[in-house]
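Example record

The entry below shows one chain as it appears in the dataset: sequence first, then C-alpha cells.
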Amino acid sequence: MLRLAVTTRAETYERMQEPLADRSIAVEHVPTTERTLTPDDDLDGFDVGFVFPPRLAEGGVADALLGVPWVNGREDVLRSRYKGETLARLSQAGVPTPETAVVSDPVDEAQLRAAFDRFDPPVVVKPNSATRGVGVTTAGDLDSFLGICDYLDLVHDYRATGDCSFLVQEYLPEARDYRAMVVDGDCVGAVERRIQNDPETDRDESRQMGVDTTDPETAHSGVRPSEADTTSPGAGVGQRGPTGRWKHNVHRGAVAQGVDLPTELRDLAESAAAALDVPWLGVDLLVTDGRAVVNETNARPTIDTADKYRPGFWDTVATLVRQTA
C-alpha cells in the first residue's frame, strides 16, 4: 500500500483517509509544527507527500527528512502564496485578472498617489500574502488610502516583518464570487461564495449568470475555500450584503453553495492552473456582466464533503497521488 504523508490534520486529512484507503493509499499525519525536528527523527518509509507544509521553514526540514515528492511542492505553493506574483504570472499568460498594482514599502507619497490614481475609487487594499481575507479593506478617497498606507508602513517598519508589500486593486462591486477546484488540469467542482441574502433572489441571480444552483445533479460540485490548511485563500470582493459587508470569505461569515459552472468559467479556472503549473489548485473567480477574472488562487485548498464534487473525484485524487509518487 502506498504511504501518503499529510502535514496538516484538519478537514482534508480527516476526509481523505477512508476513500484513499479504499484505493490502496494509506494516509498518515506527519506533524511539522509545534514539535522539535532533528536529523535523528525517523520519517522514512513514505512514498509521497500531500502539499508542502504551511510553514516553509519547518517544512524544509520535514522535506529533507521525508525525502519524498509532493502533490504541490514548495515551488507550487510559492507560486500561489504571494498574490502579486500569482496575478503577474497569470496576466503574462493571458489569463484575465483584476487591474492590480503591487506596492513594495517604503515608497514616497507621490508613488502612492500614482497607484491610487490608476483606479476609479473605491480601491481594494490587501496584504500580498495574508490568508482568509485578513487585512483586506477598501478606500474610497485618496486621504483614506494614504491613511491605510501609513498604518501598513508602521507594520512594515518592524524588523521581523518579512513581506513588506501590499496590493492595490480595482474594486468590482457587482461581481459574483466563485471558488473552482482544479485537480491535475481538470475542474472538478465549484462553489459560489456570498453574503447571506434572500434565497430566492440568489437563485434568480445565479440563473441569470448561467449557473444552476437548483439542479440536484449539479448543485453540489465544488469545494469550500481552504480552512485550517491554507496559504492563500480567496479574499472575495463582490456584492455588498444587506448589512453592507462585501468580503466573501467563509471565515468572515459568508456561505458557500455548490454550483455547476458554465464551460467558459471552468475553462478559465483550468487555464489559471495550467499557467501556474500547479496540479492541486483552488481558483477564485470574480464574474460581472461580460467579464470574468481570476482574483486569487490557493495551492492548499481544503477537501470538502464528497457531495461537493463530480462523481469519480476520489479516483482523480488517487491517480494524482500515484502519478506524483
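Notes for this example: The first helix runs from residue 11 to 21. The chain is about 30% helix and 20% strand.
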